[in-house]
Amino acid sequence: MDRLIQDMDAGKIDKSVVLGVGYMPWKAYDPNSAEYVKSMVDKYPERLVGFYTGNPTGGYEEAKRLETAVTKYGLRGLKMLPSYNYVALNDRRIWPLYEACQALKVPVMVHTGWSAMPKGKMLAYDHPLYLEDVMVDFPNITVVIGHTGFMWAEEVIFFMGKFPNVWGDFAYWAEGVPLWKVAQVWSFAKKMGVMNRFIWGTDYPYVPFTNGLDLFSKVAAYTQKHELEPYITQDDQAGFFGDNAARLLGLRESVGVSNGPVAGRP
Question: How much is the CA Rg of the chain, to the nearest whole Å?
Fold first, then answer.
C-alpha cells in the first residue's frame, strides 16, 4: 500500500481507485475484500477511493455483500470480470448485482475487450454491446466500460452516444496502443459528444503510472499537428486525467492535470 502512494507521488497522482480481483476459476476472490479495501482507504482517505470487486455469478448473496460494502464501508462502486468467470456481460446470473448498483446509485465497472486470460474463454464474452441488455433492464445504472472495449472502441463510442450514463476507461492502452490510434478514437469521441465521459485507467501495478501520462498527454498536440479534427484540447486532456472521473465518482473537489490526475483501477 505504501508503495502505491510512493508511486502516486512520483507520478504526481492526486487520487487512485483501488480494488481487488474476482476471478473464481483461480479462486482469486475474497468475499470479505471490502474490509481490506476500506482499511486502505482509511489509511489514505485523501488519496484513495475504494471499489468492491464481486463474483458475477454470486447472485443475491453477492448483491448483499455489495450493499454492505457501500453502506457500511463507504466503497463507491463495483468492479466485475464476467468473462474471466466464463460468463458474458448479459448473463442473467449477473442481474442481482446490476440491480443493486442501480438501487445503490454506484457505478459498475466491467472488463471488456481482449484479454489473454483465462484459457479457453470466448472472446465474445467481452463484447461491450452485450451491455445493451443491461441498459434496457436497468436504465438508470451507471456503467464504466473497462478498456473502452479495446478493439471495439468505435462501437463503444456509438454505444455511449445512445446511453448517457455509460463511460469508458483506458486502462492498459498505454501498453500497446499507438498514439495515432488513441488520437483517432478521442477525436471521433469528441465529434460524437462523449469525450467528457472518457477517463484515465492504468491497470497498476502491471502498468506504471508514467506510461499513461506520457502517452495520453501527447494526444492534443498530435491531433493538431496531423489536422485530425475535431482537435483534442488541453481542456479535454485535463478532463480525461481527472475532472471526468471526479464527476463520475461524485468527488466534491475538482482534480486535473494541474494538481494531479485521478488514476483509475490500480
Answer: 17
CATH of the domain at 219: 3.20.20.140
Whole-number Å distance between alpha carbons of 258 and 192? 27
Distances (CA, A) of 142 to 21, 146, 219: 20, 13, 27
111-131 per-residue burial string, b: 16 or more CB within 10 A, e: under 16: bbbebeeeeebeeebbbbebb
Q: Which domain holds residue 18?
A: 2-263
The number of distinct structural domains making up the chain is 1
Q: What confidence tens digit (pLDDT) does each residue in 84-108 have? A: 999 999 999 999 999 999 999 999 9
Q: What is the pLDDT of residues 191-200, one digit of tens each?
A: 999 999 999 9
70 sits in which H/E element: helix 59-71
The CB-based long-range contact list for 188-192 (8 Å cut-off, 24+ gap) reads 188/154, 188/157, 189/157, 189/160, 190/230, 190/232, 190/236, 191/230, 192/157, 192/158, 192/160, 192/161
